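Work Package 3 (structural annotation) set out to generate three-dimensional models for the target panel prioritized at the project kickoff. During this period the team completed the workflow that converts sequence records into discrete structure tokens, so that structures can be stored uniformly alongside our sequence database. As a representative example, we reproduce one entry of 560 residues exactly as it appears in the project archive.
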Amino acid sequence: MRTRLRTLVAVALAAVTVVAVSACAAIPTDGAVRSGGVIKDQSVSGVDYRPGKPVPGADQTTILRGFIAAGTGAADDYEVAREFLASDFSTKWNPRRQVTIQSGNPAVERVGERELTYTLTASATVDADGEYTQAVRPTSSTLTFQFTREDGEWRIAYAPDGIILSPVSFESVFQQHALYFYDPTYRFLVPDERWFLARSSTSTRIASALLAGPADWLKGAVVSAFPEGTQLSLNAVTVESGTALVDLSSDALGASSEAKARMREQLTKSLASVAAVSSVDITVEGGPFSIPDTGGVDAQQNPDVDARPLVDEDGTVGYSALGGGKIAQLGGGMGAEIGDLRPSSFALSASGTAAVVGNGDGVTVVRGRTHLRVDATDGLVPPSIDDLGFVWVASEDDTRRVTAYGLGGDPHEVSTTLPAGDLVSFQVSRDSTRALALIETNDGPSLYVMAIVRGADRTPTSLGSPVRVQAATGNAVGAAWISDSDVASVGQTTSGPDVVRSTIGGQSSTLPKPDGRATQIVGGSGGSMLLRLSDGSVLQSTGGGWETTGITADVLGVQR
């Protein structure tokens, strides 16, 4: 999806006059820094808007619209936009506080002799840390602007901090980048999606954000290898011949040999989205920083699953090749054991040695030729399984009732602040750090992602604050993890299944509606989605249209 977000921009920009410009970087940091060389903060998106300056004799409305339009020009710390402001206010205005992405046509109204309001519909916002929040529903906001006369010309005496951009302008001047942190076992790299200006200072902004730590909603579920307090020593990350030169404060010297290797891995993965960067070199206060060879043992990024759909068809449980044909039954007796339980849902661990089954009798753990029922409660949603030895069980009629069972059946209540409603699905991410919940409410389906907080022994204790992402419309059917950053939800409408794919911390897209009635959605290989229809047929999509697989299934299994 990250690539797809930028593909719509090129055609729209063809009619826009743009030029390359440069400016000195202004990267805010805390604490003392060593002065680096002056760097040119140039556009790296291939384009850079050149907004118009104030026109002599312009009225207040023209000045206001010109100021809003000048938000596309980040050169010289938004120098053109500041020309629309009164001299004593121009240095107070902070354009980096927030980006508001507006849709539709805004309205300007006069509310006083020297005051106008600007009413817009916000489709999303990006805060000062680069965190993107999509409006689940269009949100109307009214901003107030005050005016004064300077040398006979109208100028803005007060404006809210931040800039306002159209979707096309936003995608041309901002780019999406993933910061990477570790799960508590250091087996997986977990993305934290951010949006930064597409300028040559992006490497510095990524490194600074990485050192500042994960987004608030992820705290408690992920960890960083950098010692606490570590920050950039120089005020810029420079790039020479493809190598990003990152100079850290002396706090980094407290890292163990293993942590040093992980620090480099975090930086390398986080800067990989910057086209000019192919490697990373770390120094501390200008001196060498010895990093041992890890022997090629890296954390797993975006774990994938078997390309063959996992199915239950007439009691045979295993992998079905695209195009249909004989099912390769799960070995060690597990396939037969799951089939005998007549599952309505099931999920398989990444190792393939454990599974969890939901059926009319409750929730059952399967290991090889043995099984253990862990919960016989009625009204449970399809269970989930993680890779730390727990199966997850949640109640349809109580969103606050979530239990993590050890594979031996020991229960652990997990506290959560999910809003009220009818829980439709609950699923743990493939890296075991986050959970996805689809809730049917009076206002329609709502989709939430939460951090999984665990104790020192990896036992789940709570779910973090729910973060809402775009959900499908209609009657909620289900939701699934598609990749380490993308989720999908499906709702049944009168015109067919509505499927929405959303990036956590990014944008969403609605897929074409296939014919039929959807009963289940699961994540496939390579970021694909598998959709089961009521006739048993299975469709597949990688984000565009839907293709038939030639497979029929009574139940689609969830792979990890």
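The two ends are 20 Å apart (CA to CA).
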